Amino acid sequence: MIQNRKDEHLRIAASSNVEEGDSLFDEVQLIHNALPEMDFNDVEPEVTIFGKKLSFPFIIGALTGGTETAEKVNATLAKAAEEFNIGMYVGSQRVAIVKPETARSFKVVGENAPNALKIANLGAPQVSRLSDRELIDWVNEAVDMINADAVAIHLNPAQELFQPEGEPWFKNVLSKLRLIRRVVNRPLIVKEVGNGISMEVAKTLSNIPPDAIDVAGLGGTSFIRIESIRSGETSEADVFRNWGIPTLLSICEVSSVYDGLIFASGGIRNGLDGAKAIAIGANAFSMSRPMLLSALKGYDSVKETINKLMWEFKAAMFLTGSRNVNDLKKAPVVASLTILLWLIQRGVRCKLTMSMYDTLKPIASVLMNNLVRIRISE
Ligand SMILES: Cc1cc2nc3c(=O)[nH]c(=O)nc-3n(C[C@H](O)[C@H](O)[C@H](O)COP(=O)(O)O)c2cc1C
Fold this sequence. Notes:
The chain is an alpha/beta fold and 378 residues long.
């Protein structure tokens, strides 16, 4: 039963080590500014996303719905989203559409967070099998259920592959995304669930284009691990333990080809990771499993987690001399060789490689000129 699966996801994510890979945020460094020329209190971390002002660019990640435990988690997180004025995704709402008696577990989000930025959620494989009419009905129902400001469709081929009752159906997804973009009156977000979005996928999506891409890269919660624990077959998961694009690299890949908003997630574990994500090209960041662990402990724990996250994010802004988030986007950042080697091999033109290409361009043109001269004099 679909509800049992939702509860198993929550139980395994809360009780086992389900994080894999490395998001690679430790491989980049923001440059310390010893002369910020402002007080800490002058830092303004607010941003506006889809018309909603957030107190800082943070969105509680997509987690759950459909069961009693999920309802408590969703209500707790929604209360915090409202109090802190941040965004919140809900988990996949398919369960509530096929079993309307479970819709209450999502409706609590609309009730507890009437003003916060709320994001509805459905999975690509499920929407790919619906007729166009059913698809529009499903998406509108998901939006109305929580009074959502935007709709996220998640791409999760690895999860579906490793899930015992998985549905690895990814034919026709693009045309369904295009239809949602055209017909549904809400911004569209396309997200992964922990294996990242490549430059090629972002380029293909740009033909739609969604209003935001949430990279949900490798380095945090692994659904390959969660589903393998559920099935009792962990040896295949060991083979694929590092499968995916580390979050930091996925942000660079997507930002090199896609003009819309970028949300960073997957293994973001503190406000400094979040600040680095923004400095290399994201517009907001998101955390899922840490929010689940806090929500299961209770509302005070969620408040403590968000307060800490916000302080760390503001501290990174202050220490880079960034008065607002636009300044942070321009903050200088350096990357290790591991990062650069990936980006060069992939031909990624992003903030981390631009200065390198700019430095190399004059050298390359001198080399080319000399080669031409040598040829002519021959
Ligand atoms: C228990 C659990 C359930 C999740 N369910 C969904 C879901 O229904 N829809 C979705 O888009 N992502 C879902 N995710 C994926 C997260 O939104 C996120 O992409 C992923 O966990 C990586 O972020 P993290 O490392 O901060 O946990 C779920 C994550 C967890 C831990």
